[in-house]
């Protein structure tokens, strides 16, 4: 499947990266992160799609930070495209946001909690853009065929399926690596979301917890299975992040992780 900027994604090609801070906190934060991620991925010849959210509509608390809103957020993402020649992806939360977001972004993301919402999926499909659908924490992997069918009903077959863990009791997730092979069986590129998979949803009462220590471990396991891409939220200072502070990966440490991930991907797909 072709994205943009000559990026081709499939479960057989070298892995690509979706990365950036969870939420847009400021223009300065986004541009700094985008610039450094571009430098890192250019050094290691890894295709990058920059990700950040203009709105986080599914925060635990009414008082949690959500983002700058769609208009300002899309302006900032447009600057990322213009200044660094990077494709960008963002999530949306109501069907009416799909079309205006598509005027700026190169791909759209459907949040996990909304992955069964028919109007969300068809609105995404009607943009004609590549769609990355987060598998709901409540869905079986083989149930994603219905999600694919809803998007493809619009004539858009550019669908990626993203694993991000499944609910394991209350306030915990487990990443079942079998799901990656099951979703690959649907003949779509599969992405593994390594940072959301280590969340503990709602574990801190008014916010989600988690443990970023295990995100690199899960990424290595997913690349061992052979996936099209890795999704990782990366922040210059995760402890101060306004969302997902427990799970975002530090920007300063990210290059060493990517070197490991590329080596595993190469060994699995090229046998060396």
Automatic annotation (TrEMBL):
<dbReference type="GO" id="GO:0005737">
    <property type="term" value="C:cytoplasm"/>
</dbReference>
<dbReference type="InterPro" id="IPR006218">
    <property type="entry name" value="DAHP1/KDSA"/>
</dbReference>
<feature type="domain" description="DAHP synthetase I/KDSA">
    <location>
        <begin position="5"/>
        <end position="269"/>
    </location>
</feature>
<comment type="similarity">
    <text>Belongs to the KdsA family.</text>
</comment>
<dbReference type="InterPro" id="IPR006269">
    <property type="entry name" value="KDO8P_synthase"/>
</dbReference>
<keyword id="KW-0808">Transferase</keyword>
<keyword id="KW-0963">Cytoplasm</keyword>
<protein>
    <recommendedName>
        <fullName>3-deoxy-8-phosphooctulonate synthase</fullName>
        <ecNumber>2.5.1.55</ecNumber>
    </recommendedName>
</protein>
<dbReference type="GO" id="GO:0008676">
    <property type="term" value="F:3-deoxy-8-phosphooctulonate synthase activity"/>
</dbReference>
<dbReference type="Pfam" id="PF00793">
    <property type="entry name" value="DAHP_synth_1"/>
</dbReference>
<dbReference type="InterPro" id="IPR013785">
    <property type="entry name" value="Aldolase_TIM"/>
</dbReference>
């Amino acid at each position: 499947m072709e994205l943009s900027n000559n990026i081709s994604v499939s479960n057989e090609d070298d892995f690509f990266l979706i990365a950036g801070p969870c939420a847009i906190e400021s223009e300065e934060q986004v541009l700094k992160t985008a610039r450094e991620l571009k430098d890192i991925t250019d050094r290691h010849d890894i295709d990058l799609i920059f990700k950040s959210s203009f709105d986080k509509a599914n925060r635990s608390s009414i008082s949690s930070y959500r983002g700058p809103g769609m208009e300002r957020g899309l302006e900032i993402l447009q600057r990322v495209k213009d200044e660094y020649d990077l494709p960008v992806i963002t999530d949306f939360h109501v069907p009416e946001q799909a079309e205006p977001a598509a005027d700026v972004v190169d791909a759209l993301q459907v949040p996990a909690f909304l992955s069964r919402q028919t109007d969300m999926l068809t609105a995404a499909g009607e943009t004609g853009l590549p769609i990355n659908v987060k598998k709901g924490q409540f869905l079986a992997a083989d149930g994603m065929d219905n999600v694919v069918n809803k998007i493809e009903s619009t004539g858009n077959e550019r669908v990626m399926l993203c694993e991000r863990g499944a609910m394991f009791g209350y306030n915990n997730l487990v990443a079942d690596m079998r799901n990656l092979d099951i979703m690959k069986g649907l003949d779509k590129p599969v992405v593994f979301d390594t940072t959301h998979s280590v969340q503990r949803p709602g574990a801190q009462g008014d916010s989600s917890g988690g443990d970023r220590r295990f995100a690199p471990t899960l990424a290595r396991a997913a690349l061992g299975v052979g996936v099209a891409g890795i999704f990782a939220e990366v922040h210059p200072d995760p402890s101060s992040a306004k969302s997902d502070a427990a799970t975002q990966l530090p920007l300063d440490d990210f290059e060493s992780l990517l070197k490991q991930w590329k080596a595993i991907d190469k060994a699995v797909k090229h046998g060396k």
